[in-house]
Amino acid sequence: MNEPRSRADVDDPVDLRRVFARIVSSTTGGPLRTIQTTGGGKPTGTFVSLKAKARAMPWESRDCEKPVMQLAEFCGAVHSLLSQPHRLEMTVRGSSRPLVYFPDLMLVVDRAFEHSIVSGMPFATAALNWVPPMGPAATRTMVIEVKEDRDPRLANRDYAEKLDLAAQVYERVGMTFVTILKSKDLDCVDMAPIRDVLMDRFTSIRMADVIAAREAVGRAGAVATVDVVAKALGGGAAAQCKVAALTVRRVLSIGLAGEWSGESPVRLINDGKAILDRGR
Q1: For a 10 Å CB count at each end of the chain, is N or C smaller?
Q2: Which of 261, 198, 199 is nearest to 225 (CA)?
Q3: Tens digit of pLDDT for each residue in 177-231?
Q4: How far apart are CA 270 and CA 251, in angstroms?
Q5: Domains of the chain, with CATH numbers?
Q6: Which run of H or E residues covers position 147?
């Protein structure tokens, strides 16, 4: 586990009626705690994310946390990603011990995307349906709890009250807390095309590729196709890999209503926040 920062560096405590709360983050800017990846019989692992500065992000649920990370890595609405981001300590007046909560993920996202999630749209649907705005857009930090439907804690009243209190604390400090449920938020999409794109996310990109891709979409009149952009990048399989990498790096946005193909629509992301200085 990464050691927390000194008390002087911890986010300012928040007074919330009878609650004293603080958020403790890692000294490294990465995950606060790691997840045991061997033994125990439960599949766990890591996902190396460009949106996490090419760090390995731990996950402990292959069918829930990992797909959420993959969707976040693909979706242009997501600017950054961090798993096991911090520890939230909430001391209720009169209680002898604080309530401690470790969220699964923290994302910085476009405000319109956050609004879609809060309004009830499934997370995966919102990720695939996102269309880039014409220019810069406001962002919002989302703190996420990921749940499998069979998790027994869903029926635990004390646990539910702790999450509700956490949501209030996050709202007070300008963050949005959401719970992602597998049946509602993930089972509604086919993850195969997403994984196909992500396989090529570490493809080497030059500034000349960025310029060529932007010009190709511009010539097409705001919406091009993968084939059109790939041709501008030199054609062939290597060029399609570059289209995928430019998507994860927030230069392009690919519409994946169906499979990942040459006819998939491609739009530009013009908010000036492309990820061009990170990765391997």
Answers
A1: C
A2: 261
A3: 999 999 999 999 999 999 999 999 999 999 999 999 999 999 999 899 999 999 9
A4: 8
A5: 9-189 (3.40.1350), 193-268 (1.10.10)
A6: strand 139-147
